[in-house]
Design goal:
The structure is a single chain. With about 325 residues, the protein is of the alpha+beta class. It has helices spanning about 10-15, 20-35, 50-60, 65-70, 135-160, 185-190, 245-250, 305-320; strands spanning about 10, 40, 80, 105-110, 125, 175-185, 200-205, 210-215, 220-225, 230, 240-245, 260-265, 275-280, 290, 305. The strands form three sheets. Strands 1, 2, 3, 4, 5, 6, 8, 11 and 13 form a nine-stranded mixed β-sheet that branches. A four-stranded antiparallel β-sheet has the order 7-12-9-10, with no helix packed on it. It has a two-stranded antiparallel ribbon with strand order 14-15. The chain has one domain (about 10-320): B-lactam Antibiotic, Isopenicillin N Synthase, Chain (Jelly Rolls), CATH 2.60.120.330. Helices cover about 30% and strands about 20% of the residues. The longest helix is centred in the middle third of the chain and has 26 residues, at about 135-160. Helix 2 (about 20-35) crosses helix 5 and helix 3 (about 50-60) crosses helix 5 (about 135-160). The chain contains eight helices and 15 strands.
């Protein structure tokens, strides 16, 4: 998949460049999101030591026996650990697939304190593993960076549509978001994949933007476009991978594609390969009514949806437990 299909956007140029440079970046964003729904983003300001430390702490948790992890099991619609067999993501597209070969640890914002001047919610879940004590403070730091980055990306997207800078961020005062650590165990742990089984089945994300810190592997991320079909996603160790989800596609009246993607099953010729992705799903304020922008921006007038209700309905489609 070429750089012309999925370009690399340097956010440092977006912050400091002149009007012409910013306009070029915005035009590249518009074209890429229309073709594939994906971008690579550098200049994001996240030091590589932070995701590396998160992976180390999370790996220590995931490598424990299931009975040690069971007290942190996430109940339906909640946060914490989800073990093997919890989801079949392809069901969001109506596909019948075996369960995804993934374990997850997910966090989200707790209730806001309406009395505080600048309410900052605590992270959910309430229970955290004592054997990986660094995990909670590391993720607290990471989600702060992601929240800032996501809003900056939404401003860039607004300019790409030639609309006011706050077109989207006026709806992210107290937004819904989820950070999910996806651990893709090796064949030596998970066993040989079943026919048609994936680490994550084919799907589009459900919210506005997703920010992904991933590792390169043979059983890695693939992106689907109408022109090229399924192709390995481009990788840059200094870049974050960004894609838009269903809410943003609906918001733009299908001017932009909700990025369709999957994560391949662990490969037989790399039986010890395990990978971990840090996936930040950003939505908007839960009561936001998402309506398609009219022509000439929008091309399809989708029925209005309420942000949280829509995302939760899609999450329910992929849950197996």
């Amino acid at each position: 998949m070429s750089a012309s299909t999925i370009p690399t956007i340097d956010l440092s140029l977006w912050r400091t460049g002149d009007r012409r440079s910013r306009d070029r970046l915005a035009a590249a964003v518009d074209q890429s999101l229309a073709r594939a729904g994906f971008l690579l983003v550098t200049g994001h300001g996240v030091h590589p030591d932070l995701p590396a430390a998160i992976r180390a702490a999370a790996r220590a948790f995931f490598h424990q026996p299931a009975d040690i992890k069971l007290p942190f099991l996430a109940e339906a619609g909640q946060y914490g650990w989800s073990g093997p067999g919890a989801v079949a993501t392809g069901q969001a597209e109506g596909l019948i697939t075996p369960p995804d070969l993934v374990e997850t640890w997910s966090v989200a914002p707790g209730p806001y304190d309406a009395a505080a001047e600048r309410p900052v919610p605590e992270l959910l879940p309430e229970a955290w593993p004592s054997r990986s004590p660094a995990l909670r403070p590391l993720l607290t730091r990471y989600v702060r960076s992601m929240r800032t980055l996501a809003d900056e990306l939404l401003e860039l997207l607004a300019v790409a549509l030639r609309r006011p800078l706050d077109l989207f961020t006026r709806h992210t005062n107290r937004p819904d978001w989820t950070l999910t650590l996806n651990w893709y165990p090796a064949i030596t742990t998970a066993g040989t994949p079943q026919p048609g089984q994936f680490r994550v089945g084919p799907h589009t994300d459900f919210g506005t933007v997703t920010v992904l810190d991933r590792q390169l592997g043979k059983g890695g991320l693939q992106i689907h476009t109408e022109d090229d079909g399924w192709q390995d996603a481009p990788y840059d160790p200094e870049a974050l991978t960004v894609n838009i989800g269903d809410l943003m596609a609906r918001w733009t009246g299908d001017r932009w594609r909700s990025g369709r993607h999957r994560v391949l099953a662990p490969p037989a010729d790399a039986p010890s390969e395990e990978l971990m992705s840090l996936v930040y799903f950003y939505d908007c304020d839960p009561d936001t009514v998402v309506e398609s922008l009219p022509a000439p921006i929008g091309r399809v007038a989708h029925p209005p949806v309420t942000a949280r209700a829509y995302v939760r309905s899609k999450v329910a489609e992929i849950a197996l437990t």
